[in-house]
Amino acid sequence: LRTKLSQETWQLLEEACRVARLAPDSLRQYKPWAVTSMLATHAAADEMGARNSRHAASLGVEEIVEKYVGNKETLYLETALAQFEAMDGFSPPLQEALLAQGCDAVLSPKENTQLANWPVWWHRGQAQAFADEYLQDESLPPELLAEYHSVLVTARNRTMAYRLVSMLESDEPHTYFVTVGLMH
Known about the structure:
This protein has nine helices and no strands. By secondary structure, the protein is mostly helical. The two termini are 30 Å apart.
């Protein structure tokens, strides 16, 4: 990990690790995007007022939907592996920029941010509130923001839509309930 980061970002990561109670050396085998994900989980839990990252996850789409599913057959429009591969495909500059953002989120939690509203917006179907916030994002240079959106939103949405179409066009009779996160 250290060889993939600038000295400045590595120092920022060391500071964030102290706050998040992580050992920087324990992260050396991870790619920047994976560490970003760990830091984002920590920051999100803190920002949402959750007791820990597990509690924060319980407020997310997957946990809420699983409560409704019960023992019904479950199909996924996307696998966790596909999500990991998407993030792994980020350019090195984007991975480093996102890692620096993750560190900043841990080191300087922003007061009155909208993240805590995301589960509420999702639950109420208020996609426009999320879209308005998402489209105002100026946290990355425009070319990195465009790459992020292309990989994490546009390409994944297209793949999920194709999967959904194939399910709906199947010859087997089924009734489907489909749920996706606010970003999709």
